[in-house]
Design brief:
Layout (H helix, E strand, L loop, with lengths): L24 H4 L10 E6 L3 H11 L10 E6 L2 H10 L4 E5 L7 H11 L6 E5 L5 H6 L4 E4 L4 H16 L1
Parallel strand pairs: 1-2, 1-3, 3-4, 4-5
Helix pairs in contact: 2-6
């Protein structure tokens, strides 16, 4: 059954935004009606400059055919473990040079403890540390200093793989 009214607020249930005379954000363009789920990225580093450099290298979108990116930033190992336990991430980016616990050790722990752990990209201190990333079971590694193109390409590959 379809009911129409000259005043949308007349049919809104109590407490609904239309009940107060407010326009539905889905109708005004303030909220998307539907769309692809954003790519969810977690960045872990104790250094806020490193987190900023990674976010700036990626921007708002990994590729034109992929949805927008949303970020979760973590500065401590317990925050990473808690966030990953809660789930929902497409790619984890872990700073191998972070203190007190480096991203490689956290990566290995996550791969051991989290069922279907999201793909992990580890930021290594130098190119020669790639073997350590292999030990940590990381899916990819990018060395410092960060090359924005290499970083974006690696994360894009991991996100596409995760999304299937």
């Amino acid at each position: 059954m379809t009911t129409t009214s000259a005043h949308p607020g007349d049919l809104a249930p109590a407490g609904h935004p239309l009940d107060q005379g407010h326009e539905d954000p889905r109708l005004s363009g303030g909220e998307p009606v539907s769309g692809p789920k954003p790519i969810s990225l977690l960045i872990y580093s104790d250094d806020s400059d490193t987190r900023t450099k990674v976010r700036m290298a990626i921007g708002k979108r990994l590729a034109a055919d992929l949805p927008a990116v949303v970020w979760t930033e973590c500065a401590t190992p317990p925050a990473v473990i808690s966030a990953v336990d809660a789930g929902g991430f497409d790619v984890l980016i872990l700073d191998g040079e972070a203190v007190p616990a480096g991203g490689m050790g956290i990566c290995r722990q996550l791969k051991d403890e989290i069922f279907e752990c999201p793909p992990v990209l580890v930021l290594t201190g130098r190119p020669q540390d790639a073997w350590l990333a292999t030990w940590s079971r990381a899916d990819a590694a990018v060395p410092h200093p960060l090359d924005p193109r290499a970083l974006a390409e690696a994360i894009t590959v991991l996100a596409r793989r995760r999304r299937g």
